Amino acid sequence: PWVLWLTLHSTALCTFEPPGCKEMEVAAIAGESVQLLPLKLPESWTEITWEVTLDSAETYGIVTFHKGEPPDHGSSPHFINRVTFHPDNLSLQIDPVKKSDSGLYSLQTETGGGHINITKFRSLLSDRVRQPNLTVLSAHLELGQCSVTLFCSVPGADRVTYSWSRGTSRIPSDRDHQLPGNQSLLHVAINADSSDIFYRCNASNRASWAADTAGGKSLCDSPATGKYSSHVSAGNLQALHKRGQYHHPHLTNGETEAQSSDVTCPTSLGAVAAWK
């Protein structure tokens, strides 16, 4: 399977074990694979422990590893047959991950002399975003210009953010209207002779995205409230990133790996997701 690391950065301060604390938020897709990966390994250590406090308030010891010995996965029924510990990088992989796995995961690394480094991962689970529906609510042609209102929605979506683009240029967010119930409206004016312009609606959550596209000229030629040329770029996020055709609206160009600071502990939104 393909594995992709995606990260975003914010400046929230960590308040767990200063000054050596580290915290990351990890966005993952329910039903797929997530890997919790420490970004900086200790130079020396004697024992590591992975623990979790779930959002349900249940606490589990997931795995304990003494150097030179096999990992002890304990007897937690919550993660049975779903957890793999990777001794080479001390990471924890959960496959498949469930929504009930959301919570605060802790990697405790004992380095000797009673000193313990702790890295915390806030796991946030979302469903994969479904294909949005892009439709035309109104279209009016006058004096060679077509005024169009586009409507975009994702059926059954929860906490979806929309963005729009014209051709390859993103439309500023103040041009569209986010509606209750995970829907979005966009008003555009199109020259009647514009045959090569298209509009794209992108729907995304923390861990995935999907998009639908409509051709500009066809919006004026066809009756309103209809479905237009679609499915140009629906959601294989990993493949499009690999080809360089898509940049997540919250990622800077080329940003593909988590960065963290041992002092300020910036919160990092990341996804380590496997597509099969």
TrEMBL record:
SUPFAM superfamilies: Immunoglobulin (SSF48726). It holds the Pfam family Ig_2. The keyword Signal applies. InterPro entries: CD2/SLAM_rcpt, Ig-like_dom, Ig-like_dom_sf, Ig-like_fold, NK_rcpt_2B4_Ig_dom. Residues 132-205 form the Ig-like domain. One of its GO terms (biological process) is natural killer cell activation involved in immune response. The keyword Membrane applies. GO terms for molecular function: MHC class I protein binding. Keywords: Glycoprotein, Membrane, Signal. It is found in: Membrane. Its main location: membrane. One of its GO terms (cellular component) is external side of plasma membrane. This is Ig-like domain-containing protein. It comes from Chelonoidis abingdonii.
